[in-house]
Fold this sequence. Notes:
Layout: E1 15-18, E2 21-24, H1 28-41, E3 45-50, H2 52-60, H3 62-69, E4 73-76, H4 79-89, H5 98-112, E5 115-120, H6 123-136, E6 141-146, H7 155-167, E7 172-176, H8 181-189, E8 196-199, H9 203-208, H10 216-220, H11 224-231, H12 233-259, E9 267-268
Helix pairs in contact: 1-5, 2-3, 2-12, 4-12, 11-12
Amino acid sequence: MVKTQSKSNLTSLKKRRVLNTWITNAPFETMVDEVIRLGRARESSYVCVTSVHMVMEAQWDKDFQALHKNAVMATPDGKPVSLCMNWVYGTDQVQVAGENLMIRTFQRAEEEGLSIFFLGTTDDVLEELKKRLTLQYPNLKIAGMISPPFRPLSESEENTIVDEINASGTHILMVALGCPKQENWMAKHQGKVQAVMLGVGAAFPFFTGHVQRAPVWMRKICLEWFYRVVKEPRRLFIRYLITNIPFMGLIGLQWLKHKLGLDRETSQN
């Protein structure tokens, strides 16, 4: 039977407000611990891995803002998100990128005998993912893999996917459908999927090498977005143009309000 505890009962980690999103403020290993704890208990909950793109989606879309707020955790996936938390609140929050969270979860799940199910991307990526996992984490339990069609699914098709996930007995479901599709999918299926769900975005193709991630030095100075634009200009140029520039302006305004004591509620448990 699926557990129906409220989100507030699932974790005690504090969140900080970044524009209209609530981002978990905790060390990297603490967030991994929470994923493993929720997975072990098979809590029907979801984790958002939050980039600047996602922050701006929540800024523009009230429904998306609400479902993001209801996530049991929201990690600061983008380096600018963690830096802005530190700038506004004086915290020491590190970036918790989706790929890094995913890889550490592999390690911990292998150690603790927890199984992982993979949903998203293409059959080619999933096939390569399985090969690499078998080599790098030979004792990791892979509960299953599904690459859904790139079209709206019928209710019957959705139910078939959920039934397969639940029948596998998985503890952790990794969802790679892209923002905001994966977040909408996880929120819709909370209470139906009997596992903790992680929306990991492009982490599957990053891990398999189908998509090259920016060098570490570029990530450290917040230029990962620039690297990705150079690699995929036609797909990403407009997205970053309409998200990154407004994000920096709005964060500057939030910082000013915070310093003047005019900011509204800035943290929650």
